Amino acid sequence: MLVPGDPEVVFCGDLVEESGEPQAGPDAVPSHWPAPWTGCSTWAARTRLYVPGHGAVVDAAFVRAQRDALAAHFGVSR
């Protein structure tokens, strides 16, 4: 959810985790996790703030780094 303002704020829910490694239950498909951020790459604007499901507010660089780390871990291409 994007909230307009200065700066704009994106509420990410559990798509982004700042307080530790992303976690999920046994019904999750972790290899699918990078896809939402790949499809929403326009959301990763440098001036936006991102509110993760858990942890502190992060910036676009953190979001991209987490997506790239998950993709590399699960062998998912960009």
Q: Would you mind describing this structure in some detail?
A:
The protein is α+β, with helices and mostly antiparallel strands and 78 residues long. The chain has one domain. The chain has 2 helices and 3 strands, in the order E-E-H-E-H. The protein has helices spanning 34-39, 60-74; strands at residues 2-3, 9-17, 49-54. A 3-stranded mixed β-sheet has the order 1-2-3, with helices on one face. Strand 2 (9-17), helix 1 and strand 3 (49-54) form a beta-alpha-beta unit. The longest helix is centred in the C-terminal third of the chain and has 15 residues, at 60-74. It starts with a strand and ends with a helix. It comes from Streptomyces afghaniensis 772. This is Metallo-beta-lactamase domain-containing protein. InterPro entries: RibonucZ/Hydroxyglut_hydro (IPR036866).
What are its keywords?
globular, alpha+beta
Number of domains: 1
CA(first)-CA(last) distance: 23 Å
The largest sheet, given as strand count, sense and whether it forms a barrel, is: 3 strands, mixed
Tally the helices: what do you get?
2
Low-confidence stretches: none
Overall structural class, as computed from helix and strand content, comes to alpha+beta
* Oligomeric assembly: single chain
User: Helix and strand succession?
Assistant: EEHEH
Share of residues in helices: 25-40%
Overall shape: globular
> Order of strands across the widest beta sheet?
1-2-3
Q: What is the total tally of β strands?
A: 3
Mean pLDDT: 80
Beta-strand fraction estimate: 15-25%
The gyration radius over C-alpha positions equals 12 Å
